[in-house]
């Protein structure tokens, strides 16, 4: 059985890092620079980037979705967050590049501490936002150095076999699934431009491009994005900028009803024309490249750097998108239950490997007949691999799933009607008392989020601690946010909504988020329990404020072998029993007999 959507080959080799960094240093000396900043980013600040933008991975060996390398002529560092510290240490040759935890030192702090006075640090203006650049400039100045833009990325100069830019077909996203016509979306966008007193919006986020024009593409892995830009004037026809050859005839006709399409090479001229008019142009603070801002400013435009209004417009899902999400989760839940039933039969033999499990899970999803892609590379970590938060199994790291271990499986599907993301942790054989304790504490946090009721205006930062309290009571915690926003057949990680210490956007009805507290014991095991939830209104008798809560969308049972009832309050047990009853009610009719039997046992009331 082969995987269609993911590879298990080792994408990089730590031994390649030293010679590539040495070549970069030669290029720095040749150009008179003291260092170069290499972020994990493309021109759109995307989480998943096309192969030709995987500069950080090519240079260092690190394949995580976030990180920044700073290469100076005499030293180098890779700064990564808590999800990736273990992974980075394994993938990078630490004899030439120091791996630094973001929680201890930011890229700016490292620059300030290590850049020599009088030194010039180079950067690619297409890979940094205005806010990010300000931080770099401040750090360089504090060190007595300066920043300098380059007209060609220095990694590209030495990356001789760099892949070409992607040219996946762009297709229309059906209006019955989108729930709103392109014209109606554009009208709402223009209303926001009028409120901001802006003459035009430069759309640099491909997610927003896809949503606004009801199109989908395939330029990056696992997210149906067409890479490109759009200009939306407050008055007049918008224009999309990407290779017209990517457009299917259906997409061309659909877009043509509301907008024009031009090649990417014409974008600069369009920006210059806005500048000649003295236009006020809104550019997204989160994804707008410094190169775009400088082009507009040089042409005479007034640049308004701020949130792209589309980001918040697309976050609350409409009725059609919510119906699609429920349908996708029912379909996906059945596939995951078939996988878990299979795992329960096969794992005790000791013959299964992590790759076996990943391939079988993908196959169950594919057998729905509706799977377009996986939502991200499946995380399937047994034993100590489960403690690597964003572990990705390779043929080198692949290990057998042994008795007495925990198996953490974090996966999702891309369906045309919705995007799913679910994590379950399964005991293979008998778990230890410590495993049951930790699992149940994570479950208590998950239940606390699922049951939360909160007033309008509440942000994810205000709820995040609920997921951690039971862990904190035992002196434990986890180093990632509790939840992220999720798109509608778009990115599995969508902003601005999030459940985390830095999630400041108020939650609104229709937003979909993940609920995924965890616990990770380095070298032993990992636990994460994730469902997707939908923000909904709550009617409370006598309430003096508008109140919200969550509907849980994911329909898959938790592992009863890992639940310690003594740690659960009666109301928590009642929630778990009710959730499992709902799973049985919804999934029972669509499952085969063998999976039904497994489900009946997995959802028995907690003793």
Instruction: Count all strands and give the number.
Output: 28
* Shape-level CATH architecture of the largest domain: Alpha-Beta Complex
User: What's the CATH first level of the largest domain?
Assistant: Alpha Beta
Q: Strand content of the residues, in percent?
A: 15-25%
Poorly predicted tracts of residues? none
Overall mean confidence score, pLDDT: 96
Biggest sheet architecture: 6 strands, mixed
Full CATH superfamily name of the largest domain: Creatinase/methionine aminopeptidase superfamily
How does this structure look, described?
By secondary structure, the protein is of the alpha+beta class. The chain folds into 3 domains: 14-158, Creatinase/prolidase N-terminal domain (Creatine Amidinohydrolase, Chain A, domain 1), CATH 3.40.350.10; 171-314, Creatinase/prolidase N-terminal domain (Creatine Amidinohydrolase, Chain A, domain 1, 3-Layer(aba) Sandwich); 319-602, Alpha-Beta Complex (Creatine Amidinohydrolase). It contains 20 helices and 28 strands. It has a 6-stranded mixed β-sheet with strand order 4-3-2-1-5-6, sandwiched between helices. A hairpin with a 2-residue loop joins strand 18 and strand 19. Helix 11 packs across helix 12, helix 14 (319-346) packs across helix 15 (354-366) and helix 14 crosses helix 20. The longest helix is centred in the middle third of the chain and has 28 residues, at 319-346. The mean pLDDT is 96.
What's the helix and strand layout?
Elements: H1 17-31, E1 35-39, H2 55-60, E2 68-72, E3 76-80, H3 85-91, E4 98-101, H4 107-114, E5 120-123, H5 130-142, E6 146-149, H6 154-158, E7 171-172, H7 175-178, H8 182-195, E8 200-203, H9 206-212, E9 215-216, E10 229-233, E11 239-241, H10 249-256, E12 260-262, H11 267-276, E13 280-284, H12 290-299, E14 302-306, H13 309-314, H14 319-346, H15 354-366, E15 371-374, E16 379-382, E17 405-411, E18 413-415, E19 418-419, E20 422-428, H16 433-450, E21 454-455, H17 460-463, H18 469-472, E22 483-485, E23 494-499, E24 512-515, E25 518-521, E26 525-528, E27 531-538, E28 547-552, H19 570-587, H20 593-602
Parallel strand pairs: 1-5, 3-4, 5-6, 8-13, 11-12, 13-14
Antiparallel strand pairs: 1-2, 2-3, 7-9, 8-10, 10-11, 15-18, 16-17, 17-20, 18-19, 21-28, 22-23, 24-27, 25-26, 27-28
Helix pairs in contact: 4-5, 11-12, 14-15, 14-20
